[in-house]
Write a structure and sequence with these properties.
51% helix; flat
């Protein structure tokens, strides 16, 4: 069978694809000019000129178990032989 026999269906598929990509493209344009650029012109410039508090990486650092609030660590320094890591150099 000839591929051209399916031409109307392929034309429909390409039309649907074109409309979807058209909408996606306009969404990207609107998001860039309506969201990204205003963020750059407000929060970004405020940070650049020092109007916000300086970034502290400790605020976003994952805290270790003993630093977390509400956590009770029962075995922080195990002794003896077992399936755990020793800090004194032998196993």
């Amino acid at each position: 069978m000839m591929l051209s026999a399916f031409f109307p269906f392929y034309q429909f598929l390409w039309t649907v694809y074109f409309v979807c990509m058209f909408l996606v493209g306009f969404w990207c344009i609107f998001m860039f000019f309506g969201y990204v650029i205003p963020i750059w012109l407000t929060a970004g410039l405020a940070e650049y000129f020092g109007k916000t508090k300086p970034f502290d990486p400790e605020e976003v650092r994952r805290k270790i178990m003993t630093e977390q609030e509400g956590v009770e660590l029962l075995y922080s320094n195990p002794k003896g032989r077992g399936p755990f890591l020793h800090t004194d150099g032998h196993h």
